[in-house]
Amino acid sequence: MKKALILASLLALGAAAQAETATYKIDPTHTNATFEIMHFGTSTNRARFDKKEGTVEFDRAGKSGKVDISFDMTGINSGTPAFDKHLSGKDFFDVATYPTVKFVGDKFTFNGDKVTTVAGELTMKGKTAPVTLKATNFNCYQNPMLKREVCGGDFETVIDRTQWGIDYGLAYGFSKEVKIVIQVEAVKQ
User: Fold this and answer.
1) Does any domain span residue 2?
2) What residues make up the domain containing 35?
């Protein structure tokens, strides 16, 4: 009888711990992803990814989570159609062959209740490599219009684009380092 009570208690604790993980859906109207690269050491070229979707599983009490976000590369937008066409071509993203970029991160680090980094893997052009996003802001709040909790923040990282086979312009002096900046908000489901 005592063993049955202990087992039931352990199962109840496990269920309670699991119940703390919530799923959040990326809000595309409050999520923006951009990249920046130096152009001949003189100015910074920028573009954004207009089409994105994903989810976040987040357990604040357990200090864990998982983010799974995809970018439809047909939505690349630099504000200049000719540059967008070049970025979509084989010199850069080869969108016809690789239409999606995906980040999956499941290693969250915290400072108190605030997420400070999310580490995971970035898949681009058929190659996957580790990436760590640093949180420059993180917060959860009760959205008064949606009547639901929203969590999000500003995240950034610098990658070496050659890891994914994007080496166009290196011989001209273009940087291989690319800064990625993501502002994200996700709505609790």
Assistant:
1) no
2) 21-188
